[in-house]
Design a protein that fits this description.
Layout: E1 5-12, E2 15-23, H1 24-27, H2 31-39, E3 49-51, H3 57-69, H4 73-85, H5 101-120, H6 125-130, H7 135-147, H8 151-165, H9 170-177, H10 185-194
Parallel strand pairs: 1-3
Antiparallel strand pairs: 1-2
Domain SKP1 component dimerisation: 152-198
InterPro entries: SKP1, SKP1-like, SKP1-like_dim_sf, SKP1/BTB/POZ_sf, Skp1_comp_dimer, Skp1_comp_POZ
Subunit structure: Component of the SCF (SKP1-CUL1-F-box protein) E3 ubiquitin ligase complexes.
């Protein structure tokens, strides 16, 4: 029988860190935690499962919070979609006379899966606030989510980074991420003139494309 809660001991760079408690349902969103639980299923789960991912306690704590908040998303969103589709006007393709029960059920099942998948890809207001942190912390979460195999959190982190750089110039992006420019102004100008076709820039003037 699966436990209702498990304890995870963070091991950061060989150092024993904090012990976190997470529900079984929340942990199942992580491929790594799911595998670890499977490996330790013969045990009584009285002791904390070691997680050796070189993740800071702070970052892992935030990810545990994210997993906990989103642990029932699939069930909750599926229920919302089912209620939405109870109204025939919300069904695409429309159901009505001429469609047998089999066809109706298949159409609704397909639409339900599509709507659930779309909603699961959308950042909630809580997620937007979750990522209102310094840039380096966003990347810490992204890297940790990738290691822990939490694809949805990877997608949300990547979407957040994309939103951060949207509409910014190269210089603004460098400042945002602390990237040092390897080129002198003269070298940049020469690249723009000779390789402009490969380096599209929305902030260039027409003269710079010559």
């Amino acid at each position: 029988m699966a436990p209702t809660h498990i304890s995870v001991k963070n091991v950061d760079n060989g150092r024993d860190g904090e012990v976190f408690t997470i529900t079984y349902q929340a942990a199942m969103q992580s491929g790594i935690l799911k595998d670890l639980i499977s490996d330790f299923e013969h045990a009584s789960f009285d002791e904390a499962i070691p997680l050796m991912g070189n993740i800071s306690d702070h970052t892992l704590g935030r990810i545990i919070s994210w997993l906990t908040i989103h642990s029932r998303d699939v069930a909750r969103i599926t229920e919302q979609v089912k209620e939405f589709l109870e109204n025939p006007q919300n069904r695409q393709p429309p159901t009505g006379p001429g469609m047998d029960d089999d066809a109706v059920n298949k159409a609704l099942s397909s639409q339900e899966r599509t709507l659930v998948a779309e909603k699961l890809k959308t950042l909630t207001p809580w997620d937007v606030q979750f990522f209102e942190v310094p840039t380096d912390e966003v990347f810490d979460i992204l890297l940790a989510a990738n290691y822990l195999d939490i694809q949805r959190l990877v997608d949300f982190s990547s979407q957040t980074v994309a939103n951060m750089i949207k509409g910014k110039t190269t210089e603004q992006i460098r400042d945002l991420f602390g990237i040092v420019n390897d080129f002198t102004p003269e070298e940049e100008d020469e690249l723009r003139r000779t390789e402009g076709w490969a380096l599209p820039r929305c902030d260039w003037t027409p003269e710079q494309w010559q």
